[in-house]
Hints:
Radius of gyration: 21 Å
Oligomer: single chain
Shape: globular
Number of strands: 12
Helix content: 40-55%
Number of helices: 14
Largest sheet: 10 strands, mixed
Distance between the termini: 29 Å
Strand content: 5-15%
Amino acid sequence: MWRCALPPLLRYPTVDELGARAAALVARRPRDARLRRVGTSRAGTPMLLLSVGHGSRQALIVAGPHANEPVGGATVLRLADRVLADPRLHEGADATWNLLLCLDPDGLRRNEGWLRGPYALGGYFRHFFRPGFMEQPEWLPDGADAVVLPETRALLELQDELRPFLQCSLHGVDVGGGFVELTHDLPGLAQRVAHCATRLGIPRELGPYDTLYWPELGPAVYRIPRPRRGDLAAAITEAAVESTWFHPHRHGTITAIVEAPMWGVAAVEDGAPPTDEETVLRVVSHTLRHDTRLLERLLERLRPHLPAGPETARLLAPVDDYLLVCPGLADTWDPDIPVTGGARPLPPLSTAHLAALRIAGRRLALRTAGLLHQLVTGAGRDPAGVMPELERLLDQWCDDYRDGCGARWIPVARQVEYQSRVVLATFELAGRYAPACSRSGESGWNAGAAVPMHRE
């Protein structure tokens, strides 16, 4: 039976703790584990890769692609410990596990105001940080050749060096449920996800906002469509640009995005037909439109008083992104607004979809309010007099998540166990369908097909 060599994590690790715990694992097992620097962040933080095993088949696990989603850091430490304790996962599988401790360490540092707990929605959103879309390192909005972020460049170089048969990007859902997104189908994964979720009491998200227009491969498992050209709003809301998810496709890599929830909501796994779809959509869209106008007015009052400089720009970038996409989303969800031009109609919706849309609209408003709150607290004064209103809105909207949506905290250890088990299931299934990709350097996939060329 596997026994944890390191003490279990009861809270999210910081950037420094990730490095220290990885170094402790290497010191304990120097023949089987290595730690190396593969890049440097914009602020000068080392980007560390922990490699376990010496097999010819490379698996790449990327933690921390989004700054406010810290579960992946704890998960890679758990995976390293698990793989070291079970030779079947490295020697027996002829595999090397390459675990990138954090893709955006600078962003993770900016979330340390809530990382240590206690974990409450109000504290999370008041200290929430996620950079603007153009500074998120997984995206390639202008293609790989035009990349300027050093974090992105480090990941691309790592992908081309390793040519992994599997890449897992570890994400966290702040409010909702767990789900997986794949660049290729892995038959059997939906059943594995269901088993993990049931055993650990994790709700599965059966209609995520992220995957509203994406093909479903099974309950809570979705296929990522190939990137397409679109405007910035589409890129922000639909990931409709080139990305590091698809970049290693040329090497035969299967990419899985594994989402684990922080606060679970039972309604996101209700696949039943809704009883009054139009009424719910009308409320959700009108609420988002109303909240957006409130936030725009607060920003209009606040903006003239903000000091110029990189700190203000860093916080305003995601605020502007959120306020950019909110009106269009509200119109898309509103059943009273006809679909025109190039807009797409909503697909058939379940109760789970409606719950996810409600959560998504509230999330956009809360993130914006939290960033505005930080702009005021960072300035050390409130010349525009917006703080009382921001405090009221943050409390009111967090209460709605808790009381209206039924959001309940999932302990960190359970989040990590769920995500780890899903990654291990993905590793096993991916190994069955592309066993020779990383050894030969050739793609085991037909780029024009929806399924792998070779199956067992």
